[in-house]
Amino acid sequence: MKFRNILQSRYGGLAIFSLIFIALSFLVRTILLIKDFQNVELSVIRFFKIYTFGLFYDLIAISYFIIPFVLYLLIIPDKIFNSKIHRWISYAFFTISIGILVFSGIGEWFFWEEFSVRYNFIAVDYLIYTHEVISNIKESYPMPIIIFGMLVLSGGIFALVKRQFDQCINSESKFVKRLITSVVLWMIPTIAFLTIDKTSAEIPENTYSNELAHNGIYQVFSAFRNNELDYKSFYESMDDKEAFSNLRKLIKTSNSEFISNDVFDVTRKITYPGEDKNYNVMMITVESLSGSFFTKFGGTDNITSNMDTIAQQSLFFTNFYATGTRTVRGMEALTLSLPPTPGYSIVKRPKNEGMFTLGNVLKSKGYNTNFIYAGNGYFDNMNYFFGNSGYNIVDKSDFKKEEITFENAWGVCDEDLFAKAMQVADKAHHSGKPFHNFIMTTSNHRPYTYPEGKIDIPSHTGRKGAVKYTDYAIAKFLREARKHEWFNNTLFVIVADHCASSAGKTSLPVKKYHIPLMIYAPRIIKAREVKTMASQIDFAPTVMGLLNMDYTSKFFGKDILLDHPDRALIGTYQKIGLLKNNLLTVQLPTKRIESYSIENGDQKACKLNKSELKDAITYYQTASYLFHHKGYNFNK
């Protein structure tokens, strides 16, 4: 059948829609390419791949998108299909469909501006947590102008194709012929679903190029489908017994003994000489606090002046890395001391109750343990995870009206959050219990709004102001804390959940995982710099070491001050890596491996080290195994 005949048939509307889809996708891809042109490292071959692979994913996305429309075109009889009322209904649905494409394209621009990637797991979360996201969008962008522009563009596109679309509406067809056409059109997404994923056509040499070669709408379909990746199905693996035997060597420390001869049991008895130190642990986890903001690490904007000073008075870990690029990944690592298993964070997964967390360990030692969040803790399943793993929940719903001086889409400002944390600490102290407060900030998050008059950067002008406001609020919090009885017996922890940006030219850009960790306790800890390489999974064991507490452990991490880890585990929801001995070993789905040398901050592809690969497989395979076999639960 000639293409002209297709355009004039009942299914011609789908053909017109597909052409519009491809044209808009081409336009979005080109705009994003221009925006990050300097990072793409463009060549003729790469340019060809970006647009060829892009067209491939555009066509797959179209096949998914039109499934319900194909069903409708199959069952609707000609009498109704050719009626005047149906014509207007078709106009409306066709225009709405174009509007969705235009809205998606505009959304991709803002999503790329924030994350430098196409839609992914984060976009799926945004579809789920509509209140926070819609409020955030309204506070961040001039939505009336954007919506007006979207409507004008959608209407204009429809006006251009209306004459051709009218020919489709006036066509006639027989059911059997429609059935054959519909079956063929349904076979395409079915085959694609069974055989194609986002790794089927990749540009591994450059992450920016690879993201440009994808289609945002397809990425949403893919993220819904792949919220968890079975480790052995997608990654290089080894015999489970061999993996656990190697893990025992990797996590063994000078002060630990395994309590079982069962190779699959990682439970150890950790001992420290002398009495327990029942210090309080006031932990401030700061949203998107990149190491690069700090003067120590080359920051020149003077937006962390207070924390720069606090760092000099603290146990300052200068070679410390986030395990992931999302808040839930940071929470997972800091509390569970577990590598970032592929897919969604454990914080968001089902059957995550009763996990072996720092909260459960300290609670068993008589601590009052609290998760204190500035927003609504149902977001990202935080309340459920923490509430079922050893923590009391304090979120925005627990703030009285008079306790909120400023709030935005994500929650109350940092000053209000810290004031609430102070109340919780006072209550625990007056009850005679030591406390551990896990505080999660939100001010350093788009729309970057905060109380005016606190710092010299106006609210809602960008991340620099938000970081500087958080810096101000932390300094104010510590000044206020000095007035409380529990101050001299408290470890104040300042750590990031992840960096402000994770985009880079390689699969896992190491620079974009470097974060600060400082432990401030002027009456307890002598200030010094710790240069040992470590990551967030080493936080919980290190805190337990500072508390000098004997305990039973399943933690994957090590006490940084006692047994130097000298390695970091970092990843995204699909790419998982081990950084060790200036080598980064990256595992990708489809059982592909990449290796990079790290020298003076530069990251270059290099020959694979088989020993490092074995250790990388060990960490991630055993972590996945333990979660799925309930081997990482607190009471097991």
UniProtKB/TrEMBL annotation:
Residues 280-548 form the Sulfatase N-terminal domain. One of its GO terms (cellular component) is plasma membrane. SUPFAM superfamilies: Alkaline phosphatase-like. Keywords: Cell membrane, Manganese, Membrane, Metal-binding, Transferase, Transmembrane, Transmembrane helix. It comes from the Bacteria. It is found in: Cell membrane. The keyword Lipid biosynthesis does not apply. The chain crosses the membrane at residues 12-34, 54-76, 88-112, 145-163, 175-196. Mn(2+) binds at E287, T327, D497, H498. Gene3D superfamilies: 3.30.1120.80, Alkaline Phosphatase, subunit A. It is a multi-pass membrane protein. It holds the Pfam family Sulfatase. This is Phosphoglycerol transferase MdoB-like AlkP superfamily enzyme.
